C-alpha cells in the first residue's frame, strides 16, 4: 500500500522592490527671496554710486534695523501658529520707558534694569497669552487692545515726554562695538575678521551635519549642487560683512545678539517638540488637538515668547536712541509683520522660517537705507514698502494656487 503525499505549491517569494529614493526638493520661495534681496542690493549699489555698501552704512543697517530683526524672529512664530500680534510696538515703547525709569529713578544698575525690562515684556506676553489661550479671545482682538493699553501706559510713565542721559554701558547694547582686543591688521579690526571666519566654520559644520542626518534618516534633501552653492553664497556674504565692518568700528554688540537669537530660534522651530507643535497648530488646529497637542499651552507660550522678544527689542531700541521717548515703537508691529510675510510665511499659518523672516527684514532695511541715501521722500518710502508687502503676499497665494492646480 502506497501513500501519496501532497505538497502545497510553493508561494513565490515577493519581489524585492528597489528602495525608493527620497524626493529631492528645493525651496524655490526661499531662493526667490534671496534673489530679490541680492537684486535690491545690486540695484541700490548702482543707483547710489557705490555708497550703499560703505562700511558705515552697513553698520547703520544692522543697528538701525535690529528691532525689526528681533521682532520678526518672534512674529514668525506667532504667524506660523495662526495668530497675529499688533501690540509689539506699544510694548517696545513701554518696556523702553521702564528700563529708563529703572536706571534714572530706581537707581538700578543698567544691566539689572535691562533684565527687569525684558521680564516685564515676558509678563505682558503672558498676560495676552492668557486671554488668547485660556479665555478664547482671538489674538487680533487681544493684541489690538494691548496696542492701545500699553501705549497709554507709556504716556502715563513718560509724563515729561522723554528720559535721557542713560549710562554708556546701557547705550552700548544698541550702539556699541566690541573693543579691538586682537589689534589691527592693515587698518582692519582683527577680532571682527576672526568672528567672520568662526561664523563660516560653524555654518558649514552645522549644515554638513544636518545634511548627514537627513541622509542617515532617508529624509528629503535638496540637490548637492544647490546645497553647496547656497552654502558658498552664505559664506561669502558673512566674510564680506566681516570685511566691511572691520574697516569701520568693529563688530556691533547687537550683531552677536542677533546671531544668537537666529540660531537659537531656528533650532527651536526645527528640532524641538515645541517647534513641531507650532507648525502643526498653524497647519490644522483641529488635527493637532486630536493628536494630543496641548494647543492652549502652545498658544500661551507663543505669545509669552513674543512679549519676551518685544521686551528685548524695547531695550535695544531705547539703548540705540540713548533715551526713552513716548513715541517710540510707532509702526514697529507693521514692520515686523511685513518682514515675516515678505520672508515667505503663509497668511493662513503653518508655513514660515526664522531665516526667511530675517531675510524679509533685511529686504525692508535695505529698501529703507537705499531710498534714504537717494533722498526719497518718507511718504514714497512707505508707499514702496507697502507695494513690496502686497506683491510678496500675492506671490505666495499665486504659488499655492498653482500647486493645488497641479
TrEMBL record:
Which keywords describe this protein according to UniProt?
A: Cell inner membrane, Cell membrane, Membrane, Sugar transport, Transmembrane, Transmembrane helix, Transport
Q: Name one GO molecular function term.
A: transmembrane transporter activity
| Membrane topology term | Multi-pass membrane protein
TM helices/strands, residue ranges: 26-47, 67-95, 107-124, 155-178, 190-206, 227-245, 251-269, 297-316, 336-367, 379-398
Q: Which domain of life is it from?
A: Bacteria
Subcellular location, in the record's words?
Cell membrane
What's one GO-annotated cellular component?
plasma membrane
Residue numbers spanned by region Disordered = 1-21
Q: Which Pfam families match?
A: BPD_transp_2
Keyword presence, Transport: yes
Please note every region of biased composition (Low complexity).
1-10
InterPro entries of this UniProt entry?
ABC_transp_permease (IPR001851)
- Positions in coiled-coil regions: none
Function, as annotated, reads: Part of the binding-protein-dependent transport system for D-xylose. Probably responsible for the translocation of the substrate across the membrane.
Which protein, by its recorded name, is this?
Xylose transport system permease protein XylH
Amino acid at each position: 500500500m502506497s501513500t501519496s503525499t501532497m505538497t502545497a505549491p510553493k508561494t513565490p517569494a515577493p519581489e524585492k522592490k528597489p528602495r525608493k529614493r527620497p524626493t529631492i526638493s528645493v525651496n524655490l520661495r526661499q531662493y526667490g527671496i534671496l534673489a530679490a534681496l541680492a537684486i535690491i542690493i545690486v540695484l541700490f549699489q548702482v543707483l547710489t554710486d557705490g555708497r550703499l555698501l560703505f562700511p558705515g552704512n552697513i553698520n547703520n543697517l544692522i543697528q538701525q534695523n535690529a528691532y525689526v530683526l528681533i521682532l520678526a524672529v518672534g512674529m514668525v512664530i506667532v504667524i506660523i501658529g495662526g495668530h497675529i500680534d499688533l501690540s509689539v510696538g506699544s510694548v517696545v515703547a513701554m518696556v523702553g520707558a521702564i528700563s529708563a525709569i529703572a536706571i534714572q529713578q530706581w537707581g538700578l544698575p543698567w544691566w539689572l534694569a535691562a533684565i527687569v525690562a525684558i521680564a516685564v515684556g515676558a509678563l505682558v506676553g503672558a498676560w495676552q497669552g492668557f486671554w488668547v489661550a485660556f479665555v478664547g479671545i482671538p489674538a487680533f482682538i487681544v493684541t489690538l487692545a494691548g496696542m492701545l493699553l500699553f501705549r497709554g501706559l507709556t504716556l502715563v510713565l513718560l509724563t515729561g515726554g522723554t528720559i535721557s542721559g542713560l549710562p554708556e554701558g546701557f547705550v552700548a547694547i544698541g550702539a556699541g562695538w566690541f573693543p579691538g582686543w586682537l589689534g589691527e591688521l592693515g587698518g582692519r579690526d582683527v577680532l571682527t575678521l576672526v568672528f567672520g571666519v568662526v561664523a563660516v566654520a560653524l555654518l558649514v559644520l552645522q549644515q554638513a551635519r544636518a545634511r548627514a542626518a537627513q541622509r542617515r534618516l532617508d529624509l528629503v534633501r535638496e540637490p548637492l549642487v544647490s546645497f553647496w552653492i547656497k552654502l558658498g553664497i552664505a559664506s561669502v556674504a558673512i566674510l564680506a560683512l566681516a570685511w566691511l565692518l572691520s574697516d569701520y568700528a568693529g563688530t556691533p554688540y547687537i550683531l552677536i545678539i542677533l546671531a544668537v537669537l537666529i540660531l537659537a530660534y531656528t533650532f527651536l522651530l526645527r528640532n524641538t517638540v515645541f517647534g513641531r507643535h507650532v507648525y502643526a497648530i498653524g497647519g490644522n488646529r483641529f488635527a493637532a488637538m486630536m493628536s494630543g497637542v496641548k494647543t492652549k499651552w502652545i498658544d500661551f507660550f507663543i505669545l509669552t515668547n513674543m512679549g519676551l522678544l518685544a521686551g528685548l527689542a524695547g531695550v535695544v531700541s531705547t539703548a540705540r536712541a540713548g533715551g526713552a521717548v513716548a513715541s517710540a515703537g510707532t509702526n514697529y508691529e507693521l514692520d515686523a509683520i511685513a518682514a515675516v510675510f515678505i520672508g515667505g510665511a503663509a497668511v493662513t499659518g503653518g508655513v514660515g522660517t526664522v531665516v526667511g523672516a530675517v531675510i524679509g527684514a533685511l529686504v525692508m532695511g535695505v529698501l529703507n537705507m537705499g531710498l534714504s541715501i537717494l533722498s526719497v521722500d518718507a511718504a514714497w518710502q512707505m508707499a514702496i514698502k507697502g507695494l513690496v508687502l502686497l506683491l510678496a503676499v500675492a506671490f505666495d497665494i499665486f504659488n499655492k494656487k498653482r500647486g493645488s492646480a497641479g
